[in-house]
UniProtKB/TrEMBL annotation:
Protein name: DENN/MADD domain containing 5B
Assigned keywords, A-Z: Guanine-nucleotide releasing factor, Membrane, Repeat
The organism of origin for this protein: Sander lucioperca
Location(s) in or outside the cell: Membrane
Main location, first listed in the record: membrane
Domain annotation UDENN: ranges: 53-614
Pfam families: dDENN, DENN, PLAT, RUN, uDENN
Domain of life: Eukaryota
GO function terms (MF aspect): guanyl-nucleotide exchange factor activity; small GTPase binding
Keyword Cytoplasm: no
InterPro entries xrefs: cDENN_dom (IPR001194), dDENN_dom (IPR005112), DEN5A/B (IPR047278), DENN_C (IPR043153), PLAT/LH2_dom (IPR001024), PLAT/LH2_dom_sf (IPR036392), PLAT_RAB6IP1 (IPR047277), Run_dom (IPR004012)
Biased composition (Low complexity): 155-195, 427-445
Length: 1308
């Protein structure tokens, strides 16, 4: 025990934790892979076949050599390492993701290399490196078992084609389908059959190193040397145990910033580890990921990863899957992928593909199967990467990465400098895989990477036939991946090397010994390392510039770690709105999505926790870079520019690596003889033996660095105990930390080991809970953001939602709904699960409708309004299918995913989302038909809660449909409501109407005589702002008293009321034949809306008073505001205008309302001018303020002609002219607007052109004022007027633009 303890105490800085061997267990013999069988069972269940028939016995359709058999971990050394417990199932599953594979001497038996990763629950990772080779089967039982299976198979199979078409087979069948053509019609040699009398049987065996850090190249070379030792004619200098013991216990991890040399069986192996300030270690060749996908595609997949979509990699080669997955995740620096990460998905875990969470998974493709055969449960949010065909399928409309083209350009230049092309753009999809001539076997990266020595062999023409004695030449190839291949090939007949993509080797043909006496393989490794780091630096520098100021927006609100962790969920820890308002416009679509992701949230959490804990390593490097960048260029206020900054440290980063590899810092102890008995450690050539466990299970006791770390460990322990006493109990804290960190994540990692149906159910249960939690968080966030505005009015902090942010939140809600609808789907139809459910529902409802109509042929008259005296909008039926039809008729939307998104937006805008979905799910028979038992939509309680969370969204107004689909045609309905008691219901004149909104206007439309309701179709007008209403004054009954106009958008149901309350006609009121009416959104009331929850008051408006009726008109006589109220109203209206301009552009609402609506500037000034105005005269017509203005202008013009104004200062004369000019233009307009309308126009134009404060003194100075105003009038009080002028001047800083409907026909 003592020895074991000391050996393991040093393990945190051991290079490798375990050495394991996987293969066939001769004791138990051939066992079909149960997991594969379980998967078949699940698959059969999913496709609705009878699961039991599918799983009985073995799958006879497949030829026995192609079936999956169970592999076992045959041995592992040491038995256990305390901080990295050995997970036997996971290692076995990932070493041989498909179980054992068998071959005969006729098949290809090249060794393969692949890596894997095990992610533990807490997100920490362990790497595995696997060298798989074929070993002759010596056990007679196994040979005869295989023989028997073949006989059974041949007896069973009929001449018909044997390949099963179930998608299970297409996914789980063995790797090298193409190696042996399958036609099982006869047991001929072609069928790749096996006959124990004449064939030799081989079975796969895997050597695996499990390490804490991804030193891929070093492990690859070590394992291939170890295998070579077994197959070599001459036994290696030492027993195999010595080498394994050496790498397990005597080779340390290199210290940060150092390089390390250790010894394999035949030659030394070098690895290096980046320093503390550099990007963390990533040994997988990025160049390969770029050449496989092309720079453009890789950047797109990278963007999908940043936005946390579902990413599925697809390739026949495990190592490629790993290379691309690790490549993309290392580029995320300083962020980290926070969700399910399984670069190699074992066949038995395929049901994980319907996980309703973001994931990054790799799936092995079967040779010759088409992507179209692959049934993926959910594609609305899926990025599918076909690695072998350089082809990707992207989710619909996701934002592009900022400066994408410049980024790709810079990456291409880096690749070119290393002699690689960044084949931009995916070539058309071809069936043959790259780098292989049609008909040859598809190439694996090892076969494609041709190094110098191999090329020389080829050029010499010797490769036609390599005789055995020429093996000497092969010594040049030591450590090269192609070595084992060539050796295996030379054993039969000689070698033919497939045509290889010369670019991929990329090594400039120097001598075999590179500079400084390094071998070609080392040269290549150095190039790879340099290229890797330069490509990563390009990405890192993008983030350093994009997030250079992120710290300023982190909200540090908690006094200590404990309180922060306990309130983590309620805390707002990043000021998103201010951050976005600080970014250049082109970046916003991407950034607004990105700052909502889990990886960004975790990044900010790490930043906050770094006050109390040691900084997370990636964050430390990132912060150091930002500080350095600040030192070099103090950022001027121009930082909002979106110009592209290239990475400036490419050279330095590559130099650091080169220097480390040139000058080795540390050499590990050489392998040496162990304390073994004579005769131990013998083995037969070509067979990898079980090693001597006693010498391998414990490390050396007197190792100097193990001692060093043991003391360091003791020191650490002591320190930890102290901190534990100080802080809260560490376990509790850990638990908090885990909970806080996993906030919003559902299930980080699937457990790879135990996969009983119970565990699958458990996993699904976690998914269901996670989805519900996510729904709660999202709806809450949407409410908080949206209600922020009202909260501000009540004095709670800052309102901050931009149209952009709202869009992001809604997009993420759409994505969540798609994920919920695709969880546990029985059969997938179309790319959008939600839309396909809606279509099923629609089909059923329409069928029912037809049946009803057939039964009762009475024509259904829609309810019309009761009687003509009560004239209002006919109510709009709430009808789910109607909304679907609106969307189906929109030609702008081309795909199902798009339709589903549009439908969600429309339902949100109508405040019917929860109600519609409830209705959809109320058809339980349909839900049962479409969904498996465990699906979210069939968990009653969670479903109810989910609908309730969505119901809360009815509390706020969304315009997310109208504002996005701006070009569609929308039917509008207009109803004009006259005041019957006081005017003719009939008029003889011809009325017309023109409706305007934020996006345009309908143009003037004639209303048929005496019809007070009409509908028209028009391109989306957006939120409605004004209605112009008028008539041509024809006939005798040409006077018309209108109460209001109602306009409704027939798709969204939004109804606007445009109050009027005035006459239209010559000789009544102010003689106006047309009026511009200002609209407000009507809050629906009444029984049909009772389910819709409360609602926000209309934007920027105090609770509305009754429509201001012109002070001179009918009922206005009673109401006289006091002078204090008038002054307050003016201040209020000006304030509102200023506030309007301080809001972000996307959410300002209508300026017209603030200028001309209720409580607007015009209304307030009207009251000001009316105060003390002598309007009603005995026996005379009513006098209007406009009359006063006209008279004042007439006076000024005559005074001007007489020369009275000559001696006044020049600017005053100019002002005088401008006022006269404006008033005359307004009077001479062809429009028939009345006197109040003209006054309104003058105020609006004066505000727009910043002239109001200059005009006021002119009116006040005019002698007419004495005649037309009382002494007490506000207009005659000097100090009040000068205050008013001061208030009006404050509007000058803002660009006021007037709506076209206000200034039509006026040209100033």
């Amino acid at each position: 025990i003592e020895a074991g303890m000391s050996g393991s105490s040093a393990a945190p800085c051991r290079f490798a934790h375990y050495f394991a061997i996987c293969g066939i267990d001769t004791e138990t013999g051939l066992e079909p892979d149960e997991l594969a069988a379980l998967y078949q069972w699940l698959e059969a269940d999913r496709q609705g076949r009878d699961p039991d028939t599918a799983a009985t016995g073995e799958n006879f359709e497949q030829s026995p050599l192609k079936r999956t058999f169970k592999s076992k971990v045959l041995a592992r050394y040491p038995q256990n390492v305390e901080w990295n417990p050995f997970d036997q199932d996971a290692v076995n599953m990932l070493c041989m993701p498909k179980g054992l594979s068998f071959r005969t001497q006729a098949d290809q038996r090249d060794p393969q290399f692949h890596s894997f990763i095990i992610t533990r629950e807490d997100g920490s990772r362990t790497y595995g490196f696997v060298h798989t080779f074929y070993e002759e089967v010596t056990s007679p039982q196994i040979c005869s078992a295989m023989h028997t299976l073949y006989q059974m198979h041949n007896a069973e199979s009929t001449p018909s084609s044997s390949s099963s078409s179930s998608s299970m087979d297409s996914l789980a069948s063995s790797l090298d389908e193409a190696d042996s053509p399958t036609s099982s019609s006869s047991s001929s040699r072609r069928a790749g059959g096996y006959d124990s009398s004449r064939d030799t049987l081989y079975v796969s065996k895997a050597l695996c190193l499990i390490t804490p850090m991804p030193f891929m190249h070093a492990c690859r070379r070590f394992l291939s040397q170890l295998h070579r030792a077994v197959t070599a004619d001459v036994a290696p200098p030492l027993p195999l145990e010595s080498y394994v013991h050496n790498i397990l216990y005597e080779v340390p991890l290199p210290a940060p910033g150092r390089s390390l040399k250790f010894h394999g069986v035949y030659e030394p192996i070098v690895c290096q580890r980046p320093g503390l300030g550099e990007l963390q270690l990533a040994d997988f060749p990025l160049a390969e990921a770029f050449t496989l996908l092309g720079a453009e595609n890789l950047v797109q997949v990278f963007t999908c990863t940043l936005l946390e979509m579902q990413i599925l990699l697809y390739s026949h080669d495990y190592q490629r899957l790993m290379t691309v997955a690790e490549g993309i995740t290392t580029l995320l620096f300083p962020f980290q992928w926070q969700h399910v990460y399984v670069p190699i998905l074992p066949a038995s875990l395929l049901h994980f593909l319907d996980a309703p969470v973001p994931y990054l998974m790799g799936l092995q493709s079967k040779e010759g199967t088409d992507r179209s055969k692959l049934e993926l449960p959910q594609e609305a949010n899926l990025c599918f990467v076909d690695v072998d065909n350089h082809y990707i399928e992207l989710p619909e409309d996701f934002p592009q990465f900022p400066n994408k083209t410049e980024l790709i350009q810079e990456l291409s230049e880096v690749l070119l400098s290393f002699g690689l092309s960044a084949n931009t753009g995916a070539p058309p999809r071809t069936r043959t895989s790259p780098g292989s001539t049609p008909g040859s076997t598809p190439s694996t990266p090892g076969r494609e990477r041709k190094t110098v020595a191999l090329r020389q062999l080829e050029d010499d023409g010797r490769n036609g036939n390599l005789a055995v004695e020429e093996l000497a030449v092969l010594e040049l190839l030591q450590g090269n991946a192609t070595l084992e291949r060539l050796q295996a090939l030379t054993k039969r007949t000689g070698v033919t090397v497939a045509r290889v993509d010369a670019l991929r080797a990329g090594v400039k043909a120097q001598g075999t010994e590179g500079q400084g006496g390094r071998t070609a393989a080392e040269e290549e490794e150095l190039r790879n390392a340099k290229l890797n780091v330069q490509l990563r630096e390009v990405f890192a520098s993008r983030f350093t510039t994009m997030f250079a100021d992120y710290e300023a927006f982190v909200i540090q609100s908690a006094p200590d770690l404990e309180s922060w962790l306990t309130n983590r969920e309620q805390m707002h820890n990043f000021d998103k709105a201010s951050f976005l308002s600080d970014q250049p416009e082109p970046y916003l679509p991407f950034l607004s999505h990105f700052i909502e992701t889990q990886m960004f949230a975790t990044f900010v959490d790490n930043k906050i926790m770094s006050q109390w804990e040691e900084k997370e390593p990636l964050l430390r490097v990132f912060d150091a870079r930002i500080d350095k960048a600040r030192l070099y260029n103090v950022r001027a206020p121009s930082h909002r520019s979106s110009s592209y900054q290239r990475c400036s440290i490419l050279k330095e980063s590559a130099q650091a690596i080169e220097q480390r590899l040139m000058k080795i810092d540390h050499t590990a102890i050489h392998p040496h003889l162990l304390d073994m008995k004579i005769g131990q450690g013998k083995y037969a050539q070509g067979f990898f033996p079980k090693l001597q466990a006693d010498v391998l299970n414990a490390g050396p006791t007197n190792n100097k660095w193990s001692h060093r770390t043991a003391t360091a460990q003791r020191r650490k322990d002591r320190h930890r105990q102290q901190t534990e006493h100080l802080a809260l109990d560490n376990d509790l804290k850990e638990k908090y930390m885990q909970e806080a960190r996993s906030l919003g994540k559902n299930l980080r990692q699937p457990k790879l080991s135990d996969l009983s149906p119970a565990v699958i159910a458990q996993t699904n249960w976690k998914f269901v809970e996670g989805l519900l939690k996510e729904c709660r968080m999202k709806t809450k966030r949407m409410l908080v953001e949206k209600m922020g505005r009202e909260a501000v009015e009540l004095g709670h902090g800052e309102a901050n939602i931009t149209g952009l942010e709202e869009n992001t939140l809604i997009a993420s809600l759409c994505d969540l709904l798609e994920r919920i609808w695709s969880h546990g789907l029985q059969v997938k139809q179309g790319k959008s699960a939600l839309w396909s459910h809606l279509l099923h529902y629609q089909a059923r409802e329409e069928k029912l409708e037809q049946q009803q109509q057939a039964e009762s042929p009475v024509s259904q008259v829609p309810e019309r309004r009761k009687s003509d005296c009560f004239l209002a909008m006919p109510s709009l039926r709430v009808f789910l299918i109607q909304d679907m039809r609106h969307i189906q008729s929109m030609s702008e939307i081309k795909t199902d995913v798009g339709r589903a998104r549009a439908w969600i937006r429309l339902s949100l805008e109508k405040k019917l989302l929860s109600q519609h979905l409830k209705q959809l799910l109320s058809r339980q028979a349909l839900t049962k038909k479409l969904y498996k038992r465990y699906a979210f939509l069939r968990c009653e309680e969670e479903k109810e809660q989910f609908l309730f969370h969505l119901l809360s969204l009815n509390a706020v107004d969304y315009f997310c449909f109208t504002s996005v689909f701006t070009t569609i045609m929308i039917p509008y309905r207009v109803v004009i409501i006259p005041i019957k008691k006081l005017s003719n219901a009939m008029t003889t004149s011809n009325p017309w109407v023109c409706v305007s909104g934020e996006l345009g206007d309908s143009g003037i439309m004639q209303i048929p005589k005496n019809v007070l309701e009409m509908t028209f179709d028009c391109q989306n007008l957006g939120k409605l702002t004004t209605v112009q209403l008028g008539h041509d004054n024809a006939g005798l009954l040409a006077k018309w008293l209108v109460d209001c106009v109602m306009v409704r958008n027939e798709i969204t149901g939004h109804t606007y009321r445009f109050p009027c309350g005035r006459w239209l006609g010559k000789g009544v009121d102010d003689g106006s034949l047309e009026r511009v009416l200002i609209g407000e959104l009507v809050v629906p009331s009444g029984e049909e809306d009772s389910g819709r929850g409360c609602r926000t008051p209309p934007l920027q408006r105090s609770p509305s008073q009754t429509r201001r009726i012109s002070i001179t008109s009918l009922s206005g006589r009673g109401y006289k505001p006091t002078s204090a109220q008038i002054q307050e109203a003016i201040g209020e209206s000006v304030n509102n205008i200023i506030k309007h301009f301080h809001k972000p552009e996307k959410e300002r609402g209508s300026l017209t309302v603030l200028l001309c609506g209720e409580n607007s500037l015009v209304a307030a000034l009207e009251q000001f001018f009316h105060h003390g105005f002598k309007s009603a005269r005995l026996f005379q017509k009513t006098v209007f303020v406009w009359d006063f203005v006209e008279k004042a202008v007439a006076y000024m013009e005559s005074a001007d002609q007489m020369g009275d104004l000559q001696e006044t200062a020049e600017p005053l004369g100019m002002t005088c002219q401008s006022l006269c000019h404006y008033v005359n233009s307004i009077n001479s307009t062809p429009r028939n607007i009345g006197k109040d309308g003209k006054f309104q126009l003058l105020v609006c134009l004066g505000a727009r052109d910043r002239l109001l404060p200059q005009w006021l003194p002119l009116l006040v100075e005019c002698p007419l004022i004495l005649r037309m105003y009382e002494d007490t009038a506000l207009l005659r009080d000097r100090s009040t007027v000068s205050t008013l002028i001061g208030v009006l001047e404050t509007i000058h800083d803002f660009p006021i633009t007037l709506e076209a409907s206000l200034v039509k026909g006026i040209d100033l």
